[in-house]
Amino acid sequence: MAEPILTAGEAPRVRNPLLGYAMVLAATCMWGINGTVSKAILGDGLSSLRLTEVRSTAAAVVLAAVLVVTEPSRLRVRRDEVLFLLAFGIFGLAMVQWLYFFAIHRLEIGIALLIQYTAPVLIALWVRFVVKEPVRRRIWVALILALAGLSLVVDLWSGFSLDVVGAVAALAAAVAFALYILLAEHAVGHRDPVSLLCLGFAIAAVFWAIVQPWWTFPGGIVDDSVTLDGALFTTTTSVWVLMLTMIIVGTVVPFLLLVGALRHISATRVGVTAMFEPVAGALFAYAWLGESLTTTQLIGGAIVLAGILLAQTAR
After folding, report:
1. How far is CA 232 from the centre of its chain?
2. pTM exceeding 0.90
3. In terms of residue numbers, what domain contains 267?
């Protein structure tokens, strides 16, 4: 049932858990598309650092343009927000993207995702033992179900060789993802999702521009053509089209959905629901890249969904 909630300086809002879950699931499906698109771009030779830089900078520009046209006052930053926004932009948004790309360069993508999606466990542990808030027993069961399902989706039991550096990067990505969600949950009480993400991506963009200046960007790669040869269809498109898809469908919209969902459901529940991303990624990789999709993976996806549904009932 929807509940009215109040935050400082705002009119009453309505908390709608079902809407919150729908927003997170929509975001994970878009990130699933983004995984396939990003893999195709990386396969054409662009580095993970450059891809992260493009993603952050373009997202900041798009969101800033929207706010400048609609309500520029939302871009104002209070002095007491500066350190928080720096942490959110660098240790949250910038790191979670780059560490994930770096991890899948060293590990099988499924193993990297499985490690990264220990983030909801970290969130639950933080809430229970640091914040000292109760976490319902069903949430812990939902986490176990979701992790078990993910192990089937990524085909963990077929055997793999573990790269220590890649595993550390994936675990660091999990920490960055958990930090991003917890910081966003804290911020949405006094700042709207659009301005929060705009400022966060802007900080991430400046950070990456310092690390790797734009004048060294390999611009010629943008006009390259890439073929997506999947099980359901085959198409050839330009890298710039894939980048545009990554920016809008894979970044701006899903990040807005995820942060917006924190106004309706808790960070713990957002984390559990976001564990559907590897399932969505496997489905899109099957459709667009021709990667295999087995009965075991489908069963794993159903188990992940069962975990998400269980989390939804833990009120």
Report:
1. 26
2. no
3. 3-313
